[in-house]
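Archive entry: two folds, one per protein. Generate the first.
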Amino acid sequence: MKVRARNVAIAHGALLVAALTVAALADRTADWKELGMFLALLFLAAGSDLVAIQVRGLHLSGTFAAVLIACVLLGPVPAILVALAPIAINALRERPPALNLLSNVTTYTVFPLVGALLARGAGVEGLSDEWMAVVVMANFMLVNFLNFVLIYGYRVMAEGWSWRDGFRDMYSPVVPAQLGIAALTVGVIYAERYLGPAAIVVFAPNVLIFQWLLRTAIAAFERGRELVERNRELAALQFGLISSMLRTLALRDHMTARHSAAVARYARAMAQEIGLPESEQELIHTAALFHDIGKFIFPDSILLSKRRLTDEEYAIVRRHPEVGADVIAGIEGYDAVAKIVLHHHERPDGRGYPHGLISHEIPLGAKIIAVADTYDVITARDTYQDPRPMVEAFAELRRVSGSQLDGELVELFIRLMTERGVVFRHAEAEDFEAELAIERRVSDYANPRQAA
């Protein structure tokens, strides 16, 4: 850290010396003819900074507009002094660390120098009103960007902040407000052509209005960030409750977790083979993972039984898709998952449950899960019956093809397992955790793109 701080200090020190040297060489006597305007801008910059906005370590005020006016109407050195006045006042009030102060002084020396030289090079004073407006707007936004790069670049160098986060969270949200103040700056410079320094007096109240608007925009953005974080926390709570329920079920019946993970793997592979988009593959995979969560309503006499169930017990079994769907639907944005879970025991011939849908009425994801579910029940080593070889499982799938299971999906699954050389071992307990992937799912759920 000491080496990094030293390197930052050396870089800023060298940049400051270079900027001051260029400013001294570029200074002209004509730059000091409007002493009254210089003093007005100096006081405006200092006063605006006293009611500045603090956001995530950055210091925002109307000082920038005052500096840009000085860049256009005065020159490099007056503009630098206008920019440094608030820095000096702030240093006396808050006693910032030396490296922070060096960074601020360097930044507020470099960007006024660049702005003034650009304005001088463009010959703003001799341009028509229309071209003056274009050049000043462009100059404002360019130098504003440079200001951000210098300020945030210090954080990147000194503390390892991310450029991507900076542009997304700090620069982009205030661009509209900065465009507004750039337009206001153009208006002041235009008014100065006809009113003289009195235009600055008219400008001062607008600076405070600008800061109020900027504060409002930033506050709204921060509230949005807080809302996203709260949505994530809610997602973590809701999804955590669902996964905990499934784990609790797995403690009663160790087969459930491994069976769910295996079905989820088969289902995703089928969805991928069909050519469904990634979002649909993820939807079907998630539904497969939770397709049997409704089994938590089963008493042990049903859940662990290897005998033939009574009619009353079978009626309870038939309820588990609806119960599971109700649980999943409790997570906002997971309605599509709940719909697949609800219908994974429907049959193309209409003899399934809970609603007796026929083939074209059953969601594709539910039909995919039905095939994967049936195959795993037949072949898995720890289901409710003795496992049977793959060949016998394929024969059974074909036997019920078109009645219990979708015929095309049965053939696709068999082709996937044979011709494509796709082989899945039955998932172990740790594989269930990998399939569940709670952290990723919570993150995706909190993202409105995935929730949609």
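Generate the second and append.
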Amino acid sequence: MKTLSFLCIIALCLVAPTAPLALAQNQPNADGRGARWQQKLAGLSAAEREQLRTAHCKAVPDPAVRAAQIKMRQAHRDFREAMRSSMLKADPTIQPILNKIPEARARRDS
């Protein structure tokens, strides 16, 4: 039993460093679209993908779509603020770590 536990721990130590690589598969690719979206479109023909792209471009300026997008962004901001507040309540010592995040984001965006 001890040998089995030891082997499981060793296996976990070997596999754990590869977790970021597995998570990175959902990151946006060069043209800005996520890997999941690319997988969803993989079953479509080029003409169907182009038809969707054209419809999307026509839908984006729609005032209802713009309003929903603004609401979505505000809801996302509210979520991040609530999460940050709750995380600080759970562990106030993470304040310096959280303070680094906006700086990194601002440097990345500029």
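Annotation attached to the second fold: The two ends are 55 Å apart (CA to CA). The chain has a mean pLDDT of 78.
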